Amino acid sequence: MSGDDHYLPLALINILGIAGIVVWHVQGRSRPTARLIVQILFFAAMSLILYMGGIAPHQPDDVYTEGFAEWLSKSAKVLWWTHLAWTIIGLLHIYVRLNRKPREAHLILDMAVAVIYLGVALSVMGFVFGMPIATLVTTSGVVALILGLALQNTLGDVFSGIALTLGKAYAIGDWVQLSDGTAGRVTETNWRSTNLLTGANNIVVLPNSLLARQGLTSLSRPDETHQITVAVRFAAVQRPRRIEAAMRSVLQASTRIVKDPPPVVALKSIDAVAIDVELQFRVASLAMGTSARNEIIDLIHDHCEAGGLCLALPAQSLLYAPATTRGEAVASGAALRSPGAP
């Protein structure tokens, strides 16, 4: 086609491109679906005009090489490539929304957006302005190497964040615990770090590279329930069967623990002084742990008082002494009972 035949399509593409940018901003981020539909319509119209006008956006223009016409040609192609990038990015955003991807997927989405913009920028420089792409890629590779050496710690956090996201080690809202004892709920994750809200209502900012190096325990998977153990020492003069029955009554009377799976009473050990018992139960979430433990301890006190069970002294408070006779052990255990207990 001649230059005059190209002039009108290029003018229409510029008008549609600028109008599409204005409408795109007017739509706002609160209406992503409507924004994408408008974007696709404008991009389709621009592509149709290019096709009907015989204009190839991936080839330098050999018709208009100077003056206003050259500017019109280059701006039309730049607008077309820009709308192409926005259309692809809009489709990615809608895909993430429709598939209900986790919120931390924005890391992968941001990386994809960066790749799209980089590809479009190289295409514009090469196809529209006729710059040598191979030279640009080589130069950018050298610059990237220098930046990589200067920012290796930051890049380590970035790639660690990507690896953690792809591995789905945790999600926003999960309770996690690190091997160094740090525990909290994941409130935010980004390119560089992950934020944890601790039980003391503090925000701990952890670099992603630190998370990748440490062992991480998810306290929210496979579900939110969390197991808690309470250890109790009873005087050895009492029958283990009686202690077990009393502790089962304690667990059955509790209203703040999960009954499925059922809680467990474990008799851990016995010696001349004490019987070590461990109550194992689950709570609906980690946040319920303190209140459930308090209730269990209160119920243990009530059942010991009502049933005449006596607790043993802590193991660390006992002094070394020669082995006692059975009668002395019985007398020692009886001395630990509360007044009036049978």
Brief summary of the model shown:
The chain has helices at 3-27, 32-53, 67-98, 106-128, 133-150, 152-167, 208-213, 240-253, 289-307, 326-335, and strands at residues 175-178, 183-189, 193-197, 203-207, 216-218, 226-235, 264-270, 274-283.
Write structural notes for this entry:
Mean pLDDT is 78; it is low at 323-342. Strand 1 (175-178) and strand 2 (183-189) form a beta hairpin. The strands form two sheets. Strands 4-3-2-1-5 form a five-stranded antiparallel sheet. Helices cover 54% and strands 15% of the residues. The chain folds into three domains: 3-149; 164-218, Roll (SH3 type barrels); 226-335, Alpha-Beta Plaits (2-Layer Sandwich). The protein has 342 residues and is an alpha+beta fold.
Count, helices:
10
Secondary structure class reads alpha+beta
Give the beta-strand count: 8
- Termini, distance in Å? 110 Å
The overall average pLDDT, rounded, is 78
Number of domains: 3
Estimate the global geometry from the Cα principal axes.
elongated
Instruction: Report the C-alpha radius of gyration, rounded.
Output: 35 Å
Main sheet summary: 5 strands, antiparallel
Strand order of the largest sheet: 4-3-2-1-5
Task: Name the helicity range.
Answer: 40-55%
SSE series: HHHHHHEEEEHEEHEEHH
Strand content: 5-15%
Poorly predicted ranges (pLDDT <50, ≥5 residues)? 323-342
